[in-house]
Amino acid sequence: METKAALEALSALSHDSRLAAFRQLVQAGPGGMSVGELRELLDLPPATLTAHLNILRAAALVHDEREGRVIRVRANYLQMNALLAYLTENCCEGKVSCDPVSVCKPSHSGASR
Amino acid sequence: METKAALEALSALSHDSRLAAFRQLVQAGPGGMSVGELRELLDLPPATLTAHLNILRAAALVHDEREGRVIRVRANYLQMNALLAYLTENCCEGKVSCDPVSVCKPSHSGASR
DNA sequence: GACTTATTTCGATAATTTCGGAATTATCGA
DNA sequence: TCGATAATTCCGAAATTATCGAAATAAGTC
């Protein structure tokens, strides 16, 4: 991951509602959630939620898939892990335990609902 | 770590110069760097760098210590790890490999230059 | 004390981000 | 095709954040 992408991901996450949304999705796992479920949980006006989702999307922190009238959103674990790795890169002059971060993977890639 | 602190850390890191500064410090290890060294590396006017450092300080992402005329700044690895842990908390409904993050520790706490 | 270097605070201007109502697009079922 | 539901785009006022010169503070040297 290069700096630009990391910055985009970090600014995306540096907002109350977006951080909450992302964490909900991370905890929801590979099944993700619909925009509507998210909207209800976070209690935001639709336009506001969409604006936030667009920022998370642009940062590639979430994925989208339309399922009929509903849009299903999922956390992008690869991008999340890439961000964590970026932050800790070459940590401590390489002298200490600084393995490349490997934290969370979606169970089987492409798992559906 | 609670949400408020995580948010503060994320916004602190979501800026070009601050991210660069923090990563320099992470890579510098427990020895840290002086504000002056940082200023030269990042090529920023003193007032601007101080403003950024104040934000990283408020977020507890860095520590300070005055050494004579110089101020030595160090990355706060505990806070960094807490942030990573916060982001991945309860990842994937606990179904997959989601161990609490443990990424980087300062070699011996309190090591001085 | 006078001088030098290191860093911070102040404060004013400039740039960016946030919010959300209203209008719009997409999909489905009848 | 019509009506309902889901989600998005548009856009501009309000709030927040960034930038940095100039003045101030801190510490060391002579």
From TrEMBL, chains A, B:
<feature type="domain" description="HTH arsR-type">
    <location>
        <begin position="1"/>
        <end position="95"/>
    </location>
</feature>
<dbReference type="InterPro" id="IPR001845">
    <property type="entry name" value="HTH_ArsR_DNA-bd_dom"/>
</dbReference>
<dbReference type="InterPro" id="IPR036388">
    <property type="entry name" value="WH-like_DNA-bd_sf"/>
</dbReference>
<dbReference type="Pfam" id="PF12840">
    <property type="entry name" value="HTH_20"/>
</dbReference>
<protein>
    <submittedName>
        <fullName>ArsR/SmtB family transcription factor</fullName>
    </submittedName>
</protein>
<dbReference type="InterPro" id="IPR051011">
    <property type="entry name" value="Metal_resp_trans_reg"/>
</dbReference>
<dbReference type="InterPro" id="IPR036390">
    <property type="entry name" value="WH_DNA-bd_sf"/>
</dbReference>
<keyword id="KW-0238">DNA-binding</keyword>
<keyword id="KW-0804">Transcription</keyword>
<dbReference type="InterPro" id="IPR011991">
    <property type="entry name" value="ArsR-like_HTH"/>
</dbReference>
<keyword id="KW-0805">Transcription regulation</keyword>
